[in-house]
Amino acid sequence: MKVKVLKAPGIILPAMTGFIALLIGNGLGRFGYPPLIPSLVGQRWFSVPQADYLGAANLTGYIMGSAFAAWINRFVPSVNLIRISLLTATISFVCCAFPLNFPVYFLLRLIAGLAGGVIMVLTAPTIFRHTPTAKKGMLSGIIFSGVGIGIAIAGDVDPYFSSTGISDYLDKFRSAIAGAYPGFLERMAKRK
């Protein structure tokens, strides 16, 4: 199988695709939860121990997703698996915008972690297969900065907007962010 390598001017699209995928899957999906804990407890959705368990569920899912991503990738192509994981993370975000019972929320946080682990393990290698060797360093810096920018957004924006009501905030903000990536993934898939 011959792999098509992208030309240098075509680096921006794959870089932004990876950036957005890691921003959503890890920056927001994995690290977007801790800043919301005070609001979840303050609005009496969960007790402090329950909120802590939800964070642990997300971490557990992330470890599982990271550990099994390569194995799952044997059966599902990388781009499709990344798409499924981004869709799964988005659905989890939207569902977490509602006051659900603890077991359901626990499952949603576990699923978000699984999706984030898969995204973290598969995104960069998938994009690197289509990238000239000389551009991989620059590309990796852009891609992995998505995690940090997502953490910064979650840490700065989540507490600010969650004071207006956590359901309203989560529903609007995460749906808007999640809506930003489908075009990137479609263009990346067409480059194959």
Low-confidence stretches: none
Backbone CA Rg: 17 Å
CATH class: Mainly Alpha
What is the CATH-assigned architecture?
Up-down Bundle
The helix content, as a percent range, equals over 70%
Strand content: under 5%
Largest sheet: none
Structural class: mainly alpha
Mean pLDDT: 81
Note the total helix count: 8
Number of spatially distinct domains: 1
- Give the N-to-C terminal Cα separation: 12 Å
The fourth-level CATH homologous superfamily is MFS general substrate transporter like domains
Shape: globular
CATH topology category name: Growth Hormone, Chain: A
H and E order = HHHHHHHH
Fold and architecture overview:
This protein is mainly alpha-helical and 192 residues long. It has one domain (19-190): MFS general substrate transporter like domains (Growth Hormone, Chain: A, Up-down Bundle), CATH 1.20.1250. It is built from 8 helices and no strands. The protein has helices at residues 12-28, 37-42, 48-73, 78-95, 102-128, 136-162, 166-178, 182-190. The radius of gyration is 17 Å and the shape is globular. The mean pLDDT is 81.
What does the secondary structure layout of this molecule look like, with pairings?
Elements: H1 12-28, H2 37-42, H3 48-73, H4 78-95, H5 102-128, H6 136-162, H7 166-178, H8 182-190
Helix pairs in contact: 1-5, 1-6, 1-8, 3-5, 4-5, 4-7
